[in-house]
Amino acid sequence: MPELPEVEVVRRGLDAHVTGRRVTAVEVLNLRAVRRHVPGPVDFADRLAGRSIVAAGRRGKYLWLELDDSEAIIAHLGMSGQMLVQPEDAVDEKHLRVRLRFDDGGPELRFVDQRTFGGLALADLVEVDGASLPAPVAHIARDPMDPAFDPDAAVAALRRKRTGVKRALLDQTLVSGVGNIYADESLWRTKLHWARPTDKLTRPQAAALLSAATDVMTEALAAGGTSFDALYVNVNGQSGYFDRALAVYGQEGRACRRCGSVIRRDPFMNRSSYSCPKCQPMPKNPRI
After folding, report:
1. What pTM, to 2 d.p., does this model score?
2. Which of 17, 147, 238, 255 gets the most CB atoms within 10 Å of its CB?
3. Which uninterrupted H or E stretch holds 155?
């Protein structure tokens, strides 16, 4: 699933192309695409007509379009969701699910989703710690790239947990935005094994890990994110290329760039963890 850099790439594109525009019509082409909007597709379309988009927001891996009346369109990208800005006369994508047209007659916004795990929904905006967030996102912690992110508080929260460090990194209520890819890359940079107990981390180690996560996601953002296939794209349909810079994620059987040892893959939470057995030795009492 897309992580912070990929979602931020999309947010920036939406901010540039749809912020300040007024919706005139919404076409729901697949009911699953708005299944999280409980009142249904007709209500979704009717409530959006005539509304203006005033901002594109993000918290961690969560994306939304703020509307002009204390509501927002939450975009769940899932595994294959795309928010594309397309000319009105462009041929419909095979997996087009929702279309938004605007009063200026310019490019329309299309939600395309091959696997239909994602979707759009309307939600109220609420104030949380000085930030305006959609209610379903209110419990999500700030991410390391948020100007108001508190590194000291995040370090303390990580060290209070009694779990493996990668599990803690993936806990969006502690630190948001970090997913499987950037967790593995951050742990490799700080020479920490993914099963290292969080309560055994020193304060400098935890701080270095969060700093590494910030660095790797900043680098990924500059490269347009990580795209392993044509599913992760920006609003113009272009893929990112940070996959070329990955040190461990997806590199099983290849040599570690730092020491030359063979990168290994371990099963982890129905996914995988990639690490260097020499640079990131298994702790004596791992938390799997």
Report:
1. 0.92
2. 17
3. helix 151-160
Query: Helices marked H in 64-150 — which ranges?
Result: none
Query: Taking a C-beta distance cutoff of 8 angstroms, is the pair 113, 82 a contact?
Result: yes
Confidence of residue 163 (pLDDT cuts 50, 70, 90): very high
Percent of the chain with pLDDT over 70: 98
Q: Is residue 243 scored above 90 in pLDDT?
A: no
Indicate the SS3 state at residue 110.
strand
The Cα–Cα gap between 3 and 172 comes to 11
Question: Among residues of the chain, what percentage have pLDDT more than 90?
Answer: 86
CA distance 216 to 20: 32
User: Using CA atoms, how far apart are residues 205 and 212, in angstroms rounded to an integer?
Assistant: 10
**209-228, pLDDT tens digit by residue?**
999 999 999 999 988 888 65
Q: Are 70 and 127 in contact (CB under 8 A)?
A: no
Q: Specify whether the CB–CB gap between 173 and 140 falls below 8 A.
A: yes
Catalytic residues: 2-3, 61, 271
**101: nearest Cα among 11, 22, 207, 213:** 22
Do residues 174 and 164 make contact, with C-beta atoms less than 8 angstroms apart?
Answer: no
Task: Assign residue 233 a region (left: φ > 0; alpha: ψ between -120 and 50; beta: otherwise).
Answer: beta
Angstrom distance (rounded) from CA 34 to CA 248? 36
The count of other CB atoms within 10 Å of the CB of residue 39 is 12
Rg of the chain in Å (alpha carbons) = 20
Would you put residue 121 in left (φ > 0), alpha (ψ -120 to 50) or beta?
A: beta
> Which of 120, 245, 112 lies closest to 181 in space, CA to CA?
245
From CA 285, how far away is CA 195, in angstroms rounded? 9
Cα gap 15→72, rounded to integer Å = 14
